[in-house]
């Protein structure tokens, strides 16, 4: 089992294809790992009871000579924000406890069609509101590197599942960093594709103009393999791009074996490093920049002056859209129903249901968003935030006129301890300072592990950003940096993760 669960998806794909390992063996190994460690990690909210049947059917199809995709038979964990027909979809909230969707999210449907084996739904901050997974209604997920620390959020469950070797691949969603920031603190790879490159149909909406589904993996190649499966136009999603996308896996392979760093123009974003960033995070970032220069990359400092307003703009736009999106959880259309004592009007039932069903962070953001959209305040708050968003997009345009990619630390600190920022919402919100601008502009971003912070021995991630629609460039550069660091370390970072209680 230990050997199987530590294989990357690409390695596992080769062994499945040669029939050295069966899909049933691969699935059973990961289910055993979940049974062994998830009491400590709590990455999963639901574990599939049909995964082995799915794996068995993949083995039968392969034995019959059917041509299967490269990821057929590989286990996949799915963030609970994505609806599934065979497991509950709660979005980490009590208000949706036990909800069974009548359809699969498009990314789930495509994953099933590609032969991936869904093994469970992962924990998350309620309705994806949070940076630590402490806001899950079902209890926090723990970071496999240090069980006393957070795994990031909102998609901490997906990142922790991959980091703890409970799944080789996972799906997440990224509204302001919910894939990349958990990747940063767990030593995994997380990708936020270009807005519209991957369908949002069946993703329980938080902020529709910001949400993006993407891969969570242990290598850049694995992320490319998964994005090739889930990406592409979807007529059910009105924001889906009609582009014909190149293979992201091929781009990753090219980056890993090619000399893509030589002559590459790399922009270091002045506003996303330095003051406010943990010393160990900054030192690992600076070392990586020096390594890129040594490989022939041309490194330039780039200023994006409006990035300093990104967090403020984001926390007006997101709550406003969330206030609208979450209105449907009203005891009538979706969600639980709480009947006030002695009965009540529809409005009273709705109020009682939302009071019982939503957690404090969700209530905070709904109130803020409703206020920002109210008559007399729309232009002053929401309208102004959208103008700032345009200025941030122009900052990116100006930067990409000078460089091929932009880089920064993926987050300002390593994983913090539970409760450390829970009572200070602003401190929690600032944890996404580096990742939010990419969501506001709709550009792709990736977090790649670049080492351990010397002061606490916890993972640090490098964020790479590319222009809109240049996801393949992101994969080439990410894979090149990954290969460079792996050659220097002699192993992958994740292989150096401490054992979970000796397991």
TrEMBL record:
List the SUPFAM superfamilies: Amidase signature (AS) enzymes
Keyword terms of this UniProt record: ATP-binding, Ligase, Nucleotide-binding, Protein biosynthesis, Transferase
**What is annotated as the active site?**
79, 154, 178
Catalytic activity of the protein: L-glutamyl-tRNA(Gln) + L-glutamine + ATP + H2O = L-glutaminyl-tRNA(Gln) + L-glutamate + ADP + phosphate + H(+)
Stated EC number for the protein is: 6.3.5.7
Residue ranges occupied by any Amidase domain in the UniProt entry = 25-474
Which InterPro entries does the annotation name? Amidase (IPR000120), Amidase_CS (IPR020556), Amidase_dom (IPR023631), AS_sf (IPR036928), GatA (IPR004412)
Q: What is this protein called?
A: Glutamyl-tRNA(Gln) amidotransferase subunit A
Q: What does this protein do?
A: Allows the formation of correctly charged Gln-tRNA(Gln) through the transamidation of misacylated Glu-tRNA(Gln) in organisms which lack glutaminyl-tRNA synthetase. The reaction takes place in the presence of glutamine and ATP through an activated gamma-phospho-Glu-tRNA(Gln).
Q: Which residues form the signal peptide?
A: none
One cellular-component annotation, GO: glutamyl-tRNA(Gln) amidotransferase complex
Q: Name one GO biological process term.
A: translation
The primary gene name is gatA
- Please give the family membership noted in the entry: Belongs to the amidase family. GatA subfamily.
What is its quaternary makeup?
A: Heterotrimer of A, B and C subunits.
